[in-house]
Amino acid sequence: MGANMGKPSSFLDSLPSAQGTLHVVMLGLDSAGKTTALYRLKFDQYLNTVPTIGFNCEKVKGTLGRSKGQAFLVWDVGGQEKLRPLWKSYTRCTDGIVFVLDSVDVERMEEAKMELARTARSPDNAGVPVLVVANKQDLPGAKEPKELEKLLGLHELGNGHMWVVQPSCAITGEGLFEGMDALYEMILKRRKLAKQVKKKHR
User: Fold this and answer.
1) Can you give the pTM of this predicted structure?
2) Where does GTP bind (predicted)?
3) 154-200: per-residue pLDDT in tens?
4) Would you kindly state where each structural domain of the chain is located, as residue ranges?
5) CA dihedral sign, ordered 178, 122, 76, 156
6) Which of 56, 89, 160, 168 is most buried, taking the most CB atoms under 10 A from its CB?
7) CA torsion angle for 83, 84, 85, 88 (degrees, to 10)?
8) Residues 43, 48, 52, 53, CA torsion sign
């Protein structure tokens, strides 16, 4: 990282250290726990929330690992069916997608899989890293991450997608900051790869 210090460098050369605020979109079906997760990341406390009509937007800071101190601007977009067509206007040019999933709600897994695939496969989101927050792990019947990978068809996303399934509980905050750190690592990796590709084509 220090190689460019002191030399004027192009904006792209300085990217892998990802200074500046990263833009992240938080999606998922209604009642998955997106807003609870957002405010737990923001204030590190549980806030009782109401269904999101439209979106919430908050700046949150990473607290762990390499993401410590990194600012993320997180857009939490409503998950009701009538709001989902709006998702694509929020994911355009985003650095990462956080897909919040109710790990207990097996009946809606297929619906979640469909929405995640539609978002990830959109040409605008090619290669954008996906963090699946497997929420509600504290509840009986919560599915394990390995099982969720299968149920969501993550291996079929293709398109150069990197993804991580992070077990979590938005109410206690467990797993959320680890998830943001994993997402940050994927964003850095993606930028590094893009830089290598660029060098190759010079």
Assistant:
1) 0.88
2) 28-35, 79, 135-138
3) 999 876 789 999 999 999 999 999 999 999 999 999 999 988 888 88
4) 21-190
5) negative
6) 168
7) 120
8) negative
